Write the structure tokens for this entry.
Amino acid sequence: MANNYRKNRTKSALLSGETIKVPEINRVFDPTVVETIASVGYQCVWIDMEHSHADFKDLSTLILAARTWEIDVFVRIPHGPYNQVIKTLELGASGLIWPHCKSKEEAEAFVEMAKYHPEGMRGMGGGRDSFFGKSEKPAYFNIANENVLLGVMIEDKEGVEASDDIASVDGIDLLFVGPGDLSQSYGVHRDPGDPISKPVILEAFEKVGASCKKHGKFMGTAVDPGESMSMAVSRGTTWLNCCHDVTAITTGYESAMQQTNHIIENTNLL
């Protein structure tokens, strides 16, 4: 018997005051994408299972790829049943992101599902995260509880209003502001400009940021590099989803197309 639980380096980095740069995989569930992300220096990856077609077999393959490069995997799971939580953890995810959290009670229920007693009542299993049941117990239960990162998404005005209560929940590490859905909740999603630039969304960041600071939690968001990212960082955001797979691929192909066209148009052909 041994304790082979992988240390959550990203959680440790957050606790040390680092700002975390997080690439997303939203549509292209191939291990090569994970390897590419790791090869350019990212220490973790976010995998979307809420909006995407990914299944647990896809997730298992991506987690194995991440382990070869020793990077952490955080999974945005659907806002659904308990098995979404336990299966994802047993496959070896470093943390879970719970969408559309609107209340303290929802946050408490999430912790209850994701952590072992006495912090929760996560079911006993023998997955990859426990070295298929070979990790020493009870030490494994403490290690698992300590290492897992739990984040809740604040993407409804109800969640903003309840952010102080949500941030007070033991076991919650991250409050992730979802500016797109939040702008819809406030009815400003049809207004021009980046959602983060809208006054009501900036106010939400300030309120959630204050709640995180008060309770020693971290604030995250999804935002491309630029002025909006600066706005988010200036309000206390230390977890930045800064790019996703489709954008990276599109940008790369588009740049190559533009540069090739420029060469063709400006080169004298013999």
